[in-house]
Amino acid sequence: MKTLIIIDFVLAASLIDVIGSSDLQKCFQEQLQLQGQVRLLEHHVKQQQLKIIQLLEKKEIQYSDKEDENSVIDLRGKRQYSDCAEIYNEGHKQNGFYKIKPTQSPREFLAFCDMSEGGGWTVFQRRSDGSQNFDRVWADYEEGFGNFVSKNGEFWLGNKNLHYLTNQGNYTLRIDLTDFEGERRFAQYARFRVAGEEHSYEMSCGEYSGTAGDSLAGGFHPEVKWWADHRGMKFSTRDRDNDNYEGNCAEEEKAGWWFNRCHSANLNGLYYRGPYTAKTDNGIVWYTWHGWWYSLKSVVMKVRPADFERSIV
Ligand SMILES: *[C@@H]1O[C@H](CO)[C@@H](O)[C@H](O)[C@H]1NC(C)=O
Ligand SMILES: [Ca+2]
Description:
Keywords: Adaptive immunity, Coiled coil, Disulfide bond, Immunity, Secreted, Signal. Residues 1-20 form the signal peptide. It is built from 8 helices and 14 strands. The longest helix is centred in the first third of the chain and has 49 residues, at 21-69. Strands 1, 2, 3, 4, 5, 6, 7, 8, 9 and 14 form a 10-stranded antiparallel sheet that branches. 32% of the residues lie in helices and 20% in strands. The chain starts with a helix and ends in an 8-residue tail after the last strand. It folds into 2 domains: 32-60; 72-305, Gamma Fibrinogen, chain A, domain 1 (Gamma Fibrinogen, Chain A, domain 1), CATH 3.90.215.10. By secondary structure, the chain is α+β, with helices and mostly antiparallel strands. 2-acetamido-2-deoxy-beta-D-glucopyranose is lined by residues 169-170, 191.
């Protein structure tokens, strides 16, 4: 080995003699240039790699967004479920739209199952962003309307479906509310029930519990009950006035609801985003929390059998 190195030295020395020092300098310069180019290319390669990683991440995010977008869950089973509590008790604990068929219902329909807060909640109304129009006629409220695909889509399940659903037994109503300050409150009512079409989908419910105050039964003050109690009220829409007011609550409040004279809760009202001014109190109102002139950020109305017990799966 040593001899070889010596030969190399000798060779190099003789090469310098042969090529001349200016040529050698040129070679060195070229080498430096090439090394510079290599570094530049390496830099490009690194940048490209980063770009690829970023694009892949973006694609992944889009992918999960799409998964969020479509929240319909097909169980593909032969079994029919009367509500989300049954689905939960079968071990399905993912939030989403499932097909249910209450015992008296002539057909299956999609309902959002909220598997949080103990699970088994069938959601029949949601407000989240004002993307759906809730100022609708009787037939729309009867059959249901809105977005039955997206996780946070707005919808009304339909009075007919709500009737079939709540007449299967004693159902607890839970209303989850959030405001634009990021606070959450809830109101819960025992024995929530919606009568059939022949009774204009009259609503009844029992004892209140919760943190948002009792706006549905006007329980916040005995003297307001005659106009603020929504229990025992028939459903009203702008084309079907069943309220206790000389005028037409649904028309003025731009919503379908169990109006009295007219309300201390109007969760199907206009989506205003917080404090608002209008001729009438037609925002998304829960009086006992934010009064009549504050429109809430989100609402979820859901039911669950009173005797619901989580099965250990
Ligand atoms: C519903 O609750 C009421 C009052 O607690 C009770 O009398 C009734 O038997 C219950 N109905 C069903 C179907 O469980
Ligand atoms: Ca009226």
